[in-house]
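Design request, C-alpha coordinates follow.
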Protein backbone atom coordinates (compact mmCIF):
# COMPACT_ATOMS: atom_id res chain seq x y z
CA UNK A 1 0.00 0.00 0.00
CA UNK A 2 1.28 3.46 -0.90
CA UNK A 3 1.44 6.50 1.36
CA UNK A 4 -1.35 9.11 1.19
CA UNK A 5 -1.33 11.33 -1.90
CA UNK A 6 1.38 13.96 -1.78
CA UNK A 7 3.55 12.18 0.80
CA UNK A 8 6.64 10.01 0.28
CA UNK A 9 6.80 6.29 1.00
CA UNK A 10 10.30 6.59 2.46
CA UNK A 11 11.78 8.64 5.26
CA UNK A 12 14.16 11.42 4.34
CA UNK A 13 16.66 13.92 5.66
CA UNK A 14 18.49 17.01 4.45
CA UNK A 15 20.91 16.57 1.58
CA UNK A 16 23.32 18.98 3.29
CA UNK A 17 23.67 21.03 6.45
CA UNK A 18 21.38 24.06 6.84
CA UNK A 19 22.55 27.22 8.62
CA UNK A 20 20.42 30.25 9.42
CA UNK A 21 20.44 33.15 11.90
CA UNK A 22 17.88 35.55 13.31
CA UNK A 23 16.37 36.83 16.55
CA UNK A 24 13.83 35.34 18.92
CA UNK A 25 10.28 36.67 18.99
CA UNK A 26 10.07 36.57 22.78
CA UNK A 27 13.65 36.88 24.01
CA UNK A 28 14.75 39.25 21.22
CA UNK A 29 18.16 37.57 21.33
CA UNK A 30 20.28 36.71 18.32
CA UNK A 31 20.52 32.98 17.61
CA UNK A 32 22.44 30.86 15.12
CA UNK A 33 20.90 27.60 13.94
CA UNK A 34 22.49 24.59 12.28
CA UNK A 35 20.31 21.71 11.12
CA UNK A 36 22.42 18.60 10.70
CA UNK A 37 21.21 15.80 8.41
CA UNK A 38 20.43 12.43 9.91
CA UNK A 39 21.27 9.07 8.41
CA UNK A 40 19.97 5.53 8.38
CA UNK A 41 21.37 4.92 11.88
CA UNK A 42 20.17 8.17 13.47
CA UNK A 43 17.27 8.05 15.94
CA UNK A 44 13.88 8.63 14.36
CA UNK A 45 12.58 12.16 14.70
CA UNK A 46 13.96 15.62 15.37
CA UNK A 47 16.39 16.39 18.20
CA UNK A 48 17.17 19.90 19.45
CA UNK A 49 20.70 20.45 20.72
CA UNK A 50 21.57 23.52 22.82
CA UNK A 51 25.21 24.54 22.57
CA UNK A 52 27.38 27.25 24.09
CA UNK A 53 31.00 28.00 23.20
CA UNK A 54 31.27 24.68 21.39
CA UNK A 55 29.91 22.75 24.37
CA UNK A 56 26.64 20.78 24.35
CA UNK A 57 24.30 21.86 27.15
CA UNK A 58 21.50 19.39 26.42
CA UNK A 59 19.82 17.34 23.73
CA UNK A 60 16.04 17.44 23.66
CA UNK A 61 14.20 14.95 21.42
CA UNK A 62 10.86 16.28 20.26
CA UNK A 63 8.29 14.74 22.59
CA UNK A 64 5.15 15.88 24.42
CA UNK A 65 6.83 14.73 27.64
CA UNK A 66 9.35 17.59 27.38
CA UNK A 67 6.78 20.26 26.49
CA UNK A 68 6.27 23.00 29.08
CA UNK A 69 3.52 25.61 29.19
CA UNK A 70 4.60 29.01 27.93
CA UNK A 71 2.63 32.06 26.73
CA UNK A 72 2.29 32.42 22.96
CA UNK A 73 4.69 29.65 21.93
CA UNK A 74 5.65 26.00 22.35
CA UNK A 75 8.68 25.18 24.48
CA UNK A 76 10.71 22.08 25.31
CA UNK A 77 12.64 21.80 28.57
CA UNK A 78 15.14 19.16 29.65
CA UNK A 79 15.17 17.61 33.12
CA UNK A 80 17.95 19.99 34.17
CA UNK A 81 16.15 23.12 32.96
CA UNK A 82 17.70 23.72 29.51
CA UNK A 83 15.05 25.18 27.22
CA UNK A 84 14.26 25.53 23.54
CA UNK A 85 11.43 27.99 22.85
CA UNK A 86 9.18 28.76 19.88
CA UNK A 87 9.77 25.50 18.04
CA UNK A 88 6.41 25.29 16.25
CA UNK A 89 7.18 26.98 12.91
CA UNK A 90 10.35 24.97 12.40
CA UNK A 91 8.70 21.69 13.40
CA UNK A 92 5.83 22.32 10.96
CA UNK A 93 8.34 23.02 8.19
CA UNK A 94 10.46 19.93 8.86
CA UNK A 95 7.36 17.71 9.03
CA UNK A 96 5.87 18.98 5.77
CA UNK A 97 9.23 18.97 3.96
CA UNK A 98 9.47 15.34 5.11
CA UNK A 99 12.71 15.73 7.03
CA UNK A 100 12.21 12.76 9.33
CA UNK A 101 15.63 12.57 11.01
CA UNK A 102 17.76 15.60 11.86
CA UNK A 103 19.45 17.47 14.71
CA UNK A 104 18.69 21.18 15.22
CA UNK A 105 21.61 22.91 16.95
CA UNK A 106 21.08 26.35 18.55
CA UNK A 107 23.42 28.68 20.44
CA UNK A 108 20.54 30.39 22.31
CA UNK A 109 17.25 29.21 23.76
CA UNK A 110 14.78 30.47 21.14
CA UNK A 111 14.36 29.42 17.52
CA UNK A 112 14.50 32.59 15.36
CA UNK A 113 11.16 34.04 14.30
CA UNK A 114 12.52 35.21 10.91
CA UNK A 115 9.63 36.97 9.11
CA UNK A 116 7.00 35.50 11.44
CA UNK A 117 5.98 32.74 9.02
CA UNK A 118 7.27 29.32 8.01
CA UNK A 119 8.19 30.46 4.49
CA UNK A 120 11.90 31.15 5.19
CA UNK A 121 12.27 27.67 6.70
CA UNK A 122 10.53 26.04 3.74
CA UNK A 123 12.76 27.95 1.32
CA UNK A 124 15.94 27.07 3.22
CA UNK A 125 15.06 23.38 3.53
CA UNK A 126 14.18 23.13 -0.14
CA UNK A 127 17.45 24.87 -1.07
CA UNK A 128 19.35 22.19 0.86
CA UNK A 129 17.39 19.39 -0.77
CA UNK A 130 16.06 16.12 0.59
CA UNK A 131 17.57 12.66 0.29
CA UNK A 132 15.70 9.44 0.93
CA UNK A 133 16.53 7.00 3.71
CA UNK A 134 16.01 3.21 3.54
CA UNK A 135 13.24 3.23 6.17
CA UNK A 136 9.52 3.10 5.38
CA UNK A 137 7.83 6.36 6.31
CA UNK A 138 5.71 6.15 9.46
CA UNK A 139 2.37 7.82 10.07
CA UNK A 140 0.13 7.88 13.12
CA UNK A 141 -3.23 6.43 12.10
CA UNK A 142 -6.10 7.68 14.25
CA UNK A 143 -8.52 4.87 15.17
CA UNK A 144 -11.19 6.75 17.10
CA UNK A 145 -12.12 10.31 18.04
CA UNK A 146 -10.28 12.16 20.77
CA UNK A 147 -11.60 15.57 21.83
CA UNK A 148 -10.63 18.43 24.13
CA UNK A 149 -13.11 21.24 24.93
CA UNK A 150 -13.26 24.27 27.20
CA UNK A 151 -16.09 26.70 27.90
CA UNK A 152 -18.77 24.68 26.11
CA UNK A 153 -21.84 26.77 25.32
CA UNK A 154 -20.15 30.09 26.09
CA UNK A 155 -18.84 32.85 23.82
CA UNK A 156 -15.32 31.76 24.72
CA UNK A 157 -15.83 28.14 23.75
CA UNK A 158 -12.71 26.40 22.42
CA UNK A 159 -12.48 22.85 21.18
CA UNK A 160 -10.17 20.60 19.24
CA UNK A 161 -10.62 17.00 18.18
CA UNK A 162 -9.17 14.40 15.88
CA UNK A 163 -11.01 11.56 14.18
CA UNK A 164 -10.08 8.80 11.71
CA UNK A 165 -9.30 9.68 8.09
CA UNK A 166 -7.25 8.19 5.27
CA UNK A 167 -5.44 11.55 4.86
CA UNK A 168 -4.09 14.31 7.09
CA UNK A 169 -6.95 16.83 7.07
CA UNK A 170 -7.85 19.94 9.04
CA UNK A 171 -10.81 22.20 9.59
CA UNK A 172 -9.83 25.24 11.66
CA UNK A 173 -12.17 28.06 12.64
CA UNK A 174 -11.22 31.26 14.37
CA UNK A 175 -12.77 34.69 14.84
CA UNK A 176 -11.28 38.09 15.52
CA UNK A 177 -13.17 41.28 16.26
CA UNK A 178 -13.29 43.40 13.13
CA UNK A 179 -12.44 40.51 10.83
CA UNK A 180 -15.35 38.12 11.39
CA UNK A 181 -15.23 34.34 11.36
CA UNK A 182 -12.28 32.84 9.49
CA UNK A 183 -11.99 29.23 8.34
CA UNK A 184 -9.48 26.96 6.62
CA UNK A 185 -10.45 23.49 5.49
CA UNK A 186 -8.43 21.04 3.47
CA UNK A 187 -5.99 18.18 3.19
CA UNK A 188 -2.56 18.85 4.61
CA UNK A 189 0.24 17.79 2.26
CA UNK A 190 3.76 19.12 1.68
CA UNK A 191 2.43 21.08 -1.31
CA UNK A 192 -0.68 22.53 0.37
CA UNK A 193 1.30 23.58 3.43
CA UNK A 194 3.97 25.35 1.37
CA UNK A 195 1.47 27.11 -0.88
CA UNK A 196 -1.40 27.97 1.47
CA UNK A 197 -0.13 27.91 5.06
CA UNK A 198 3.61 28.63 5.24
CA UNK A 199 3.42 32.33 4.18
CA UNK A 200 1.03 33.26 7.03
CA UNK A 201 2.65 35.31 9.80
CA UNK A 202 2.36 35.53 13.55
CA UNK A 203 -0.10 38.29 14.37
CA UNK A 204 -1.42 40.41 17.20
CA UNK A 205 -2.99 43.70 18.17
CA UNK A 206 -0.49 46.41 18.98
CA UNK A 207 -2.63 47.56 21.93
CA UNK A 208 -2.28 44.08 23.48
CA UNK A 209 1.41 43.64 22.74
CA UNK A 210 2.73 46.58 24.75
CA UNK A 211 1.07 45.57 28.07
CA UNK A 212 2.18 41.95 27.49
CA UNK A 213 5.81 43.04 27.00
CA UNK A 214 5.70 45.14 30.18
CA UNK A 215 4.05 42.34 32.17
CA UNK A 216 6.78 39.98 30.97
CA UNK A 217 9.47 42.28 32.33
CA UNK A 218 7.68 42.50 35.69
CA UNK A 219 7.37 38.70 35.90
CA UNK A 220 10.89 38.07 34.63
CA UNK A 221 9.49 36.16 31.65
CA UNK A 222 10.46 37.39 28.18
CA UNK A 223 7.34 37.93 26.06
CA UNK A 224 7.37 39.60 22.63
CA UNK A 225 10.62 41.47 23.25
CA UNK A 226 11.65 40.73 19.68
CA UNK A 227 8.31 41.63 18.07
CA UNK A 228 8.76 43.94 15.08
CA UNK A 229 6.71 44.92 12.05
CA UNK A 230 9.18 42.85 10.04
CA UNK A 231 8.14 39.62 11.80
CA UNK A 232 4.52 40.21 12.79
CA UNK A 233 1.22 40.99 11.13
CA UNK A 234 0.46 43.94 13.41
CA UNK A 235 -3.22 44.80 13.86
CA UNK A 236 -4.28 48.38 14.54
CA UNK A 237 -8.03 48.78 14.83
CA UNK A 238 -9.58 46.76 12.01
CA UNK A 239 -6.61 46.70 9.68
CA UNK A 240 -3.23 45.04 9.34
CA UNK A 241 -0.27 47.37 8.98
CA UNK A 242 0.92 46.84 5.42
CA UNK A 243 -2.00 44.51 4.63
CA UNK A 244 -2.45 40.75 4.79
CA UNK A 245 0.02 38.54 2.99
CA UNK A 246 -2.52 35.80 2.17
CA UNK A 247 -6.35 35.65 2.45
CA UNK A 248 -7.59 34.89 5.97
CA UNK A 249 -3.99 35.08 7.18
CA UNK A 250 -4.92 34.82 10.84
CA UNK A 251 -6.67 31.45 10.63
CA UNK A 252 -3.98 30.10 8.30
CA UNK A 253 -1.40 30.96 10.92
CA UNK A 254 -3.47 29.04 13.46
CA UNK A 255 -3.19 26.07 11.10
CA UNK A 256 0.59 26.59 10.90
CA UNK A 257 0.93 26.56 14.69
CA UNK A 258 -1.37 23.54 14.92
CA UNK A 259 0.72 21.56 12.42
CA UNK A 260 3.87 22.40 14.36
CA UNK A 261 2.34 21.50 17.71
CA UNK A 262 0.91 18.22 16.40
CA UNK A 263 4.38 17.40 15.03
CA UNK A 264 5.27 16.76 18.68
CA UNK A 265 3.65 13.35 18.10
CA UNK A 266 6.68 12.43 15.99
CA UNK A 267 5.06 11.73 12.61
CA UNK A 268 2.38 12.99 10.22
CA UNK A 269 -1.16 12.03 11.13
CA UNK A 270 -3.79 10.04 9.29
CA UNK A 271 -6.76 11.82 10.80
CA UNK A 272 -8.97 14.88 10.54
CA UNK A 273 -8.39 17.65 13.08
CA UNK A 274 -11.36 19.91 13.84
CA UNK A 275 -10.44 23.02 15.82
CA UNK A 276 -12.41 26.00 17.09
CA UNK A 277 -10.21 28.85 18.33
CA UNK A 278 -7.20 26.57 18.91
CA UNK A 279 -4.29 27.60 21.13
CA UNK A 280 -0.86 26.13 21.79
CA UNK A 281 -2.14 24.75 25.10
CA UNK A 282 -5.14 23.03 23.52
CA UNK A 283 -3.02 21.66 20.68
CA UNK A 284 -0.67 20.12 23.22
CA UNK A 285 -3.54 18.68 25.25
CA UNK A 286 -4.91 16.99 22.14
CA UNK A 287 -1.64 15.38 21.06
CA UNK A 288 -0.88 14.31 24.65
CA UNK A 289 -4.35 12.80 25.09
CA UNK A 290 -4.15 11.00 21.75
CA UNK A 291 -0.80 9.39 22.51
CA UNK A 292 -1.91 8.50 26.04
CA UNK A 293 -4.94 6.60 24.69
CA UNK A 294 -3.57 3.31 23.30
CA UNK A 295 -6.75 2.27 21.48
CA UNK A 296 -7.05 5.65 19.70
CA UNK A 297 -4.07 5.27 17.36
CA UNK A 298 -1.52 2.96 15.79
CA UNK A 299 1.65 3.22 13.73
CA UNK A 300 1.16 2.86 9.99
CA UNK A 301 3.98 2.27 7.49
CA UNK A 302 3.76 2.44 3.72
CA UNK A 303 6.13 1.02 1.14
CA UNK A 304 6.54 1.77 -2.55
Amino acid sequence: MRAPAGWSDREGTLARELTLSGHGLHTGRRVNVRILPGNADSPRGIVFRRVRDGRTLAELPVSPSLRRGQPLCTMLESSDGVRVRTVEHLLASLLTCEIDRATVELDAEEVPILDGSAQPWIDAIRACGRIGLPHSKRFIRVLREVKIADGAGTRDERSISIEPSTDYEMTVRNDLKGFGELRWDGALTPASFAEQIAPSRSYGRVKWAIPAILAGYVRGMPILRGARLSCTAAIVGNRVVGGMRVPDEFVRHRVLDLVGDMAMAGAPLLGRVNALRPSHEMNYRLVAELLATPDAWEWAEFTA
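Comment from the thread starter after seeing the answer: thanks! The radius of gyration is 18 Å.
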